[in-house]
Design brief:
Growth Hormone, Chain: A, mainly alpha, disordered C terminus, single chain
Length: 400
Amino acid sequence: MRRAPALSFLLVTVFLDMLGLGLIVPIVPALMKAVTEDATAAAFWSGLLGSIYGLLQFVVSPLLGRLSDRYGRRPVLLASLTCLGVDWLAHAVSPGPWTLLVFHALAGACAGTNTVVNAYIADVTKPESRARAYGLIGSAFGLGFVAGPTIGGLLGAVDVRLPFFAAAALSFANVAYGWFVLPESRPGDRTTRLTLRMANPVAAIAVVLRRPVLGLLAYARFCADVARMIHQSIWTFFLTYQFSWSTAHVGVVMAAGALAGAVFQARAVGPLVRRLGDKRAAVAGSLLGVVALAGTAFVSVPWMLYVVQAVGVLGSVGGAAAQSWISRNVRADEQGTVHGALTGIGAVAETVVPVAAGAVFGWSLAYASPGLVFVGAAVFAALSALLLAVTPDVRTAQLD
């Protein structure tokens, strides 16, 4: 690791991003109800806000990645964090849903944090160390997920808008921290062209998908994203239906799983990937994910759930290994461009899958088969594992 302060900042950034998101998760329904003064309208606007965020992220992410290649990682990352803080502040003071929609769309358009963090790590780490670094990022993500909803629930009990002020303050504090601490990982290259083709998300993604090795890895990642979003969207509803658990009980189980995953990714992912290599670790992690998702579909008692959760934690090695593998197949001058396209691909899953998974889950309840949706998730995870298995493990790739 060439720049310890930079990695520290990235870890803090991911943690605070997830903490800020987690702060507002328990509060969004109450805020939307307060703003719209109608429960049905609140549900509609909440869904619309989520969709517009994902749509704008899909549209703009490839361009943000390209901008980070042309002008450097630092300005794009700090601008993204600033936009996120403005969005949370707008949530805190907005008098109506249309204002929220406008600012949430802006936040989606500026949601370049994930893109730039992944490119930055590729800039400042050697290939053999990247899986460990990506594992640490995953750990910071998990820790923020654990802390955010707990703190958000406590603050929301005082005032429904207070968690949004807190999330905005964290974002702005992180911008100030990065302004003074974060070095530039790679000076911008003004020879990197900005064209209408690269600004078009469909064209930018198509360029990545056409590349022999990188295309297969991108398809594998998309399948993994679909499986992850199905699980993320339905898991709480499934446990509430299957075990009649309270929201607090579900929250505790989620927090415990996230904490275990954070510890595993921080301590074990690096050594495992060094021993197995990126490809074998990515395939093994994907197969463990298949087992965890398929097992979730058939759990009937809580102890079975805890077992499949543990398998899922072990499977998290696959994400870091696949990310490391992708970075090895991207030139230094295109890390931002490629990771922006990959973020756009993930945004498609984040926009479409929750709606589709919710519809399938509702339909499955009529046939007393609540776990059916997780069978579908396991199928996508298996497709991801298959694509990873057939992808050649080469170390470089060229642009078409």
